[in-house]
Amino acid sequence: NWWAGMRDSEVHPLQRRKLGSWHSPRLCTPKTNVMFLKTHKTASCTILNLLYRFGEKHNLTFALPKGYHFDYPNFFNSRSVKGFWWQNGQHYNMMSSHMRFNRPEVQSVMPADTFYISILRHPVSLAESSFNYFHFLAPAFKHSPSFEDFIANPWKYYIPYLRFNHLARNMLWFDLGFDHNAEFSLQSAQSVVAEIQQTFHFILLADYFDQSMVLLRDALCWSLDDVVTFRHNARTNAKPKCLSPAQEEQLKKWNALDWYLYQSFNKTFWEKVERFGKRRMDKEVAILQARREELQNLCLLKEGKPPKVKQSLGQGVQRCQTGYVTMMKHTLNSNLSISDKELCSRMIREEYEYTDLMRKKQFPKT
């Protein structure tokens, strides 16, 4: 099994203490070639952290961007992968930075047996979160006096094909590589969903994050600690707005493509849960949550306040890009042992810091 092949010195002391409790034997082979299509405002930064941790622990290679995204919002091109062309087109184990999906180009970079995953979020809560986070970046949001005004009459503020306005309408559809301004047609929407199902092995749901982690762990044959995460890039200073049923319906109509997409994969998600077993799922979620709480108690300073984050004024998808929100940042306990500090530091390491670290490891001379 996964742990039987590891030397005792390779197991972190905290993992060794809980090996019997947290790590049941796995009679399968862990997958090490994973492509994660990182969508926006869907807890994707949290998943990116666990992928970087797994890759770092097992010395896997990442297809890394030259900056912090693969020339987003343009379609992905293999030329945007650092080192790909002057390393004779080598394949990588993992790919996880923001892109607009382009299947042939991604397949030219990743091995044939790659496991493809992505994550969706309910379009209503996604729209509310996006309005706050991308308020200075998406022109439609920037020109709206309030979220309520935007919901009431989005066409008053939205100009199709204006750069970064895809963040204001059918953003998931766009990230997956399709036309987010297309008129909704059931036949074409069904065709797109079928294409996505042919490409991606598993679509996670941010709204059911813990259940997604349980299913992901089972699909990848990873250990529990591999999928235990702390929240990343989450806001701290504002609660989601309470919308009326009529406003929610307006947002579903405005994001009709994303709404169809979400409904389709919500259905297949719960079909997977049924096959996995409801009682088994409840048990695994409880174990996951208990482990997260144990690691939070070990790693994180309870009374620390998140620092204020500088707002972006729309210079592209860059660090700390927020509108009206302050983003959470974790603070480590000060009395950690050296080994515990190493473990905890990895768990709180943010996207850009981790990307820089992996780039330095893979390209030490540049």
Word description of this protein:
The protein is mainly alpha-helical. It is built from 16 helices and 5 strands. Mean pLDDT is 85; it is low at 1-22 and 304-327.
Beta-strand share of residues: under 5%
Number of helices: 16
From the alpha-carbon coordinates, what is the Rg to the nearest angstrom? 21 Å
Q: Shape from CA axes? A: globular
Distance from N terminus to C terminus (CA atoms, Å) equals: 38 Å
Low-pLDDT windows of residues: 1-22, 304-327
- Strand arrangement across the biggest beta sheet: 2-3-1-4-5
**Element-by-element helix/strand order:** HHEHEEHEHHHHHEHHHHHHH
Outline:
The chain has 366 residues and is mainly α. The protein contains 16 helices and five strands.
What's the structural blueprint in terms of helices and strands?
Layout: H1 13-17, H2 19-22, E1 34-37, H3 44-57, E2 62-63, E3 94-95, H4 103-109, E4 115-120, H5 123-133, H6 139-142, H7 147-152, H8 171-175, H9 186-199, E5 202-205, H10 209-220, H11 224-227, H12 245-254, H13 256-276, H14 278-299, H15 338-348, H16 351-362
Parallel strand pairs: 1-3, 1-4, 2-3, 4-5
Helix pairs in contact: 3-16, 10-14, 12-13
Keywords: Glycoprotein, Golgi apparatus, Membrane, Signal-anchor, Transferase, Transmembrane, Transmembrane helix
Subcellular location: Golgi apparatus membrane
Organism: Erpetoichthys calabaricus
